[in-house]
Amino acid sequence: MLQASAVTKSFPGVKALKDINIEVRPNEVVGLIGENGAGKSTLMRVLAGTLRHDSGSLTLDGEELKLRNARDAARHGIGMVFQEQSLLLNMSVAENIYLGQEDRFIRFGIVNWKAMNAAARRQLAKIGVDIDVTARTSELSFAARQMVELAKALTLEESVDRPLVILLDEPTSVLTAADIEVLFERVRALKSRASFVFVSHRLDEVLAISDRVYTMKDGEVVAEHRASEVSAPELHKVMVGRGLQAEYYRETRQGEPRSEVMVEAKGLGLAGAYHSIDLTIHAGEIVGIAGVVGSGREELVRTIGGYMPQTEGTLEIAGEPVRFSSPEQAVKKSIGSVPRERRIEGLVMFLSIAENITLADLKSVMRHGAINYRMERELASDWIKRLRIKATGPDVACRKLSGGNQQKVVLARWMTAGSRILILDHPTRGLDVGAKEEVYDLIRDLSEQGVAILLISDTLEETIGLSHRVLVMRDGEITARYEAKPGAKPDQVDLVKAMV
C-alpha cells in the first residue's frame, strides 16, 4: 500500500533520516522501534505529511505520492494518532472528530449540530465505544480521548475509496494494561479496513500487535523481522547494540540511606484525594509509591511538590514545618519535581537547553544583576557532556530533542539547583530501554549523593527495582509498606493485592 524508498531528511547539524526503505502492506500492523533520537518520529511526520523529506520517494498503491501537508495525506487516506494527542479540550467530542471537516455539516452558514453528532456516533460505533459525542473533551479520561483520536482518523473513510493507513505514535504511553488491551482489540478488528504503523518503546506490546517490525538506529532502518519469529530481548539487542542487562535497575548500587530525615508527613490529607498519610524519606533514600489511578498517589506527590496544598495534617522538610501554597515555595526548600508531562510542565520547549537548565537557579549564572550568557552556556555544555545529552550544543531548543534527552535536561536543572529532595513522577515515560538505563544510572547517582527521592513509576517492576521502600496506596490511604533491599525485593503479586 504505502512505501518509502531512499527517504532522507536533514536538520541543521543532524541527518535525521538516511535512505529509509519501508513498506506497509494491506491489512497489517507494522511495528516501528528504536531508541530516542533514532528517527521514528521524523519518519512518522514525513508519512503524515507534516514534514517534507529532502530526497527519496513515497508511493501509494504503486503511484508516486507528494505530500505538502497533513491535508494532502488525509486526502489519500493517511491519518495519524499523535502521542501528545491533537484534540481541543474545550470543544465537544463531535467537534473534535470532524475538526477541519465542518463544511459537510454547514448549510447557509449554519452548522447542523444534529447531523454532526449523528455522524460522530457512527465513527465511534466503528471502534465499538460508547462516548457522549456532546461532552466536552476535557471531561474524558486519557484512554477515552485516545479512542476519539482513532475515530477521528477513521473519518477519512468517508472521503477516500481505498483502505486507510493509520499511524499510531506511541498511543499506549499513558494507558493502563486494560486500556491497552481494549485499544489492541479495536486495532485488530479494523485490520480488514486499514493498515497501521505502530510506534512504541514497549517491545512486548510491539510484538503483541504487529505482523512485522522495523528497527531504526541513528536515522537508518537496521533490521526487519516478522513479529512471530523474534523475541523482545533480541529486538532490544538490535536496537541498542547490547543485550538487556540483568542489572537493569542498578540494584547493586542501592546503598543504605542516611539517618537524616528529609521529608516527614504526619496525618497528611487533601480533601477528596487522600487522608491520614504518615511518611518519611531519609537522605539518599528512594521511596516508591504504587497504586492504581485514583488511589491518591498523584495528589500526594503534588502536595509535597507545592502544587496541591494539604487540608489536614503536617509536613516537615528537613525538620522544618511547611505548608506550601505554590511550587515556588517548594523549590526554595530544595525540592525539585520531574513531572510526568515533561513537554507541558517540565520544560519550556521553545527555550534552549542552557535556558531550561538554569531556569530554577538563575542566580548561579547572574553577575551584577544580569544573566551571564557565556557562563550559562558553559554550565549547560558541561551537563551535556556529563549526561551524554545528544545535541549539537547548548543553544539547541528543547523541542528539537528526543524524549530521553529532554528528561536529562529536566534532571540537569534540579541538579544545577542543588535540590536535596526530588519528586520523580513517571521519570521514564516514553523513553526507550537504552535511555531508561541512563536515567536509572542518574537516579542512583543522586541517591549516592544523599538526595531524597519520591518515585511514582509506570510499572511495578520499575518501582520495586529502584526503591529502598515501597508504599502501596488504595482509596486515598496507605494500605501496605514493604522493604525493598537488594536481593530481597517484594513480589509484584503482593503489591497488586494491596492495590486493589
Gyration radius over CA: 24 Å
Helical run tally: 17
Largest sheet: 6 strands, mixed
Assembly form of the protein: single chain
Low-confidence stretches are none
Protein model, in words:
The protein is built from 17 helices and 24 strands. Helix 4 packs across helix 5 and helix 14 packs parallel to helix 15. A hairpin with a 2-residue loop joins strand 7 and strand 8. Helices cover 32% and strands 27% of the residues. It has a six-stranded mixed beta sheet with strand order 6-9-10-3-11-12, with helices on both faces. A six-stranded mixed beta sheet has the order 18-21-22-15-23-24, with helices on both faces. The longest helix is centred in the last third of the chain and has 16 residues. The protein is globular. The model has no long low-confidence stretch (mean pLDDT 88). The protein is of the alpha/beta class and 500 residues long.
Short description:
With 500 residues, this protein is of the alpha/beta class. It has 17 helices and 24 strands.
Observed structural traits:
six-stranded mixed beta sheet, 500 residues
Question: Which SSEs are present, and which pair or pack?
Answer:
Layout: E1 2-11, E2 14-24, E3 29-34, H1 40-48, E4 55-60, E5 63-65, H2 70-75, E6 78-81, H3 93-97, E7 106-107, E8 110-111, H4 113-126, H5 142-154, E9 164-169, H6 177-190, E10 194-199, H7 203-209, E11 212-217, E12 220-226, H8 232-240, E13 261-270, E14 274-282, E15 286-290, H9 297-304, E16 312-317, E17 320-322, H10 327-332, E18 335-338, H11 342-346, H12 353-357, E19 366-367, E20 370-371, H13 373-386, H14 403-416, E21 421-425, H15 433-448, E22 452-456, H16 460-466, E23 469-474, E24 477-483, H17 492-499
Helix pairs in contact: 4-5, 14-15
